[in-house]
Amino acid sequence: MREPEPTLAAFSLAGRTAVVTGAAGLLGRQHCRALADAGAVVVATDVDAEACSRVVDELRSERSNGARARLHGVAADITVPGSLERLRDEVLRIGDRIDVLVNNAASNDRFEDAAAAAALSRFESYPVEAFRRALDVNVTGTFLACQVLGTEMARRRKGSIVNIASTYGMVGPDQRIYRRPDGSQGFWKSPVYPSSKGAVLAFTRYLAAYWAAAGVRVNSLSPGGVAQPGQEPYFREQYADRTPLGRMAEAHELRGALLFLASDASSYVTGSNLVVDGGWTAW
After folding, report:
1. Which of 26, 103, 143, 233 has its CA 20 to 30 A from that of 165?
2. Angle at 132 between CA 174 and CA 149, to 5 degrees
3. pLDDT band at 1 (very low <50, low <70, confident <90, very high)
4. Cα–chain center distance at 84
């Protein structure tokens, strides 16, 4: 039995290469920060090339010259195998290896017409096209990213995959928190997000068992609600009332959990789901 690393050293990602999908999103930026802070070469990827560049520029502006050099933006569509293969080849050119994959990219409902949102988001009238489109990103995209990038980890017999799921993959949405103060329902949490995140949890367990012998650990991270611009005050208040810690998460509060799963600090953890929800699922 080899001597274990000092505790804090186990969290280091120095010399490793990490890929974050959906990097231009609220949590994607935080995932990139956490991995870069731990010393990894980070490849931030999103379907929008300009968004990738903005994220990398933002992160570089916060860091020293050495840390800036470890940040790269590469656009890719996770629903297209050929696009992911090009991403893989570019990552290998940049870092010569893939050690960490964070599957963060996801589709969540956005309705352009606020007046129609309540009707369209109801289960009884939810468009099947929207259901299929979200499944393609949230489930098929996660599958393909693991297949294309994770296979490179399995070939090298080492790596950590972190699939970003959700508390809504574990429990049903409480539709009451979306209710306006006058009692009307302006929006319903639709069926596809919980369905797709539940699938991510099941897929995580499958792949953890499948690739265990290849030295690739696969875990999921399930955030609760995260505070962000544009949220209605009544929604934040109702979410807080429903949460033991009495508030929504701040985006940066996922960093520690992500780093734990990505690093050797979790070397004996696979097939697990780490919940960061302020106690939402505790009652």
Report:
1. 233
2. 100
3. low
4. 17
Tokens representing 147 are 């297949």
- Calpha distance 117→27 (Å, rounded): 24
Q: Would you list the domain boundaries of the chain?
A: 10-112+128-175+191-233+249-282
**Strands 17-21, 41-45: pairing kind:** parallel
Q: Which residues are designated catalytic?
A: 193
**E strands, 37-77, in order:** 41-45, 71-73
- Determine the Cα–Cα distance for residues 33 and 206; give it in Å rounded to an integer: 29
- Superfamily assignment of 10-112+128-175+191-233+249-282 in CATH? NAD(P)-binding Rossmann-like Domain (3.40.50.720)
pLDDT band at residue 187 using 50, 70 and 90 as cut-offs: confident
Q: Which residue has the tokens 């080899």?
A: 2
Return the exposure string of 194-232: e unless at least 16 CB atoms fall within 10 Å of the residue's CB, then b: bbbbbbbbebbbebbeebeeeebbbbbbbbbbbeeeeee
Q: Which residues are registered as beta bridge partners of 41?
A: 17
The pTM (predicted TM-score) of the whole model is 0.94
